[in-house]
Automatic annotation (TrEMBL):
This is Na+/H+ antiporter subunit D. InterPro entries: CPA3_Na-H_Antiporter_D (IPR050586), NADH_UbQ_OxRdtase (IPR003918), ND/Mrp_TM (IPR001750). Residues 128-409 form the NADH:quinone oxidoreductase/Mrp antiporter transmembrane domain. It is a multi-pass membrane protein. The keyword Cytoplasm does not apply. It is found in: Cell membrane; Membrane.
Length: 494
């Protein structure tokens, strides 16, 4: 019970190691990965309720006193990220059974997926800034495997850029952590938050904050550091792309959210204004990209960039409403992005290509796929009563409360551009003249349609059931808006 924050990390790690012993046993690989993901989701749900009822959960390895021991912390912010990531991984594993290919399945694909989940959940849970770097490297090493698995030319070409960017950002991460340590003398996040107020060097701390924004901005793909993402993410197969698109940028978003609400709060007039401008510029860049391309995968990839800007906009406003909107929207976006990549994967699987101009007429043979895609597209764009609408309304309200009226209106207008970008897929792929299609067995089609449909329905339920879920978002926003809650829980050993 005391080690509950570790369960969403230990379970996928244990199953990943177990699966490595029999990589060629296909049934064992599939069953083991599925069971491991289900248990991780179950542990995450239980931990969510424990945090909601009992408060922030903290475990320090070896019972060392804070800040000397390595601390893992589950507050409402981290557990919402952990639970959503675990759910997406579960559906991705299910979806992979018929889409990733047997050759990849028998070459450590499922251990790679579970190890990436270990790194993602660890990054969300750690209470130590250096161990945030460590978990970043764990998830990156797993993502390197997944990005090249299969040995296709496009994978090798695009993975080089992805690896180089992350190697540079990781080196800068270590340097920035060293600079922060030289100023405050600690690596524990709660201890850093407590000591930064005593450090009479606001200029240095602001410079370090901007360096961290660059480091995490590279990983989150904010403007102007998003240049690597559209092409790098277009290389891997669809299940891997769904994982990358839903999870990896959100780790960078989480890191910015955590650091800029926990200890980089001494010069909000500068740091959070910079973050506000960058978030708006990120939305603009993503909108331009989403309208400019005709590749169905890249249209959704550019929408990843738009969502990063939208989420960080709420963090930049730094008020209860904006933070609550960010937390609600990030869960929505992770779920809907995975669902959209699944849907696009089915479209590509049926048509045999990604060029939208060469598609058409799918509605005649696959009406259920068409209407399912339309629901997901409306949810992404924020059409009421779907989940995207609720999150954006909270974000806009938060912007207005912070007297950022122009940017708040832009958040609303960007929804129209998002809708236009994704509705093009519906119009061009599902209507018009029917094009030549790749043969696909009905059993295979339904086996990949079912997990996709369930995930889309889950996003619908998330929006319809917003009233029941809002106390969790409010609790998360309270932790972000009041860092002392986090500090007291960690330093007090609660």
């Amino acid at each position: 019970m005391m080690n509950s924050p570790l369960m969403p990390i230990i379970i996928p790690f244990a199953f990943a190691i177990l699966l490595m012993f029999a990589p060629k046993q296909l049934r064992f690989q599939r069953a083991g990965a599925l069971v491991g993901a289900i248990l991780t989701v179950a542990a995450s749900i239980w931990l969510l309720q424990k945090v909601h009822i009992d408060g922030i959960q903290v475990v320090t390895f070896g019972s060392w006193p804070v800040p000397y021991g390595i601390t893992m912390v589950s507050d409402m912010v981290s557990i919402l990220f952990v639970l959503t990531s675990s759910i997406i991984t579960l559906f991705t594993i299910w979806y992979s059974f018929r889409t990733i290919g047997i050759a990849r399945e028998q070459f450590f694909y499922y251990p790679g997926v579970l190890l990436m989940l270990v790194g993602v959940n660890g990054a969300f849970t750690t209470g130590d800034i250096f161990n945030l770097f460590v978990f970043f490297e764990v998830l990156l090493m797993a993502s390197y495997l997944l990005s090249v698995l299969g040995g296709e030319k496009i994978q090798f070409r695009e993975s080089i850029k992805y690896i180089l960017v992350n190697v540079v950002s990781s080196a800068l991460f270590v340097i920035t952590v060293a600079m922060l340590y030289s100023v405050v003398g600690t690596l524990n996040m709660a201890d850093i938050a407590q000591k930064v107020s005593d450090v009479n060097q606001p200029g240095i701390l602001t410079a370090i904050a901007i360096l961290f924004l660059v480091v995490f901005g590279l990983k989150a793909a904010i403007f102007p550091l998003f240049f690597w993402l559209p092409s790098s993410y277009s290389g891997p197969p669809i299940p891997v792309l769904a994982l990358f698109g839903a999870l990896l940028t959100k780790v960078g978003v989480y890191a910015i959210t955590r650091t800029f609400t926990l200890f980089f709060t001494g010069d909000i007039a500068f740091t959070h204004t910079v973050l506000l401008y960058l978030s708006v510029a990120t939305i603009v860049a993503g909108c331009i990209g989403a309208l400019a391309v005709w590749d169905v995968k890249k249209i959704i990839i550019y929408n990843i960039i738009i969502a990063v800007g939208v989420i960080l906009y709420g963090v930049a406003t730094y008020n209860d409403t904006g933070l609550r909107g960010s937390m609600f929207y990030v869960v929505h976006d992770m779920l809907i992005k995975a669902a959209l990549f699944f849907l696009v994967g089915i479209i590509v699987y049926i048509t045999g290509q990604t060029n939208l101009k060469k598609m058409g007429g799918l509605m005649k043979r696959y009406p259920s796929l068409g209407w399912l895609y339309l629901i997901a597209a409306f949810s992404l764009a924020g059409i009421p009563p779907l989940s995207g609408f609720i999150g954006k309304m909270l974000l806009v309200k938060g912007g207005f409360e912070a007297e950022q009226f122009a940017s708040g209106i832009w958040i609303l207008l960007s929804s129209l551009i998002v809708l236009l970008s994704v509705i093009r897929i519906f119009v061009y792929a599902f209507w018009g003249k029917e094009q030549q299609l790749s043969p696909i067995k009905k059993t295979v089609y339904w086996q990949i349609w079912i997990p996709t449909a369930i995930l889309v329905l889950l996003t619908v339920a998330y929006g319809v059931g917003a009233d029941a879920l809002m106390p969790y978002m409010t609790q998360a926003a309270e932790v972000l808006a009041n860092p002392q809650l986090y500090i007291d829980a960690v330093k007090g050993g609660k």
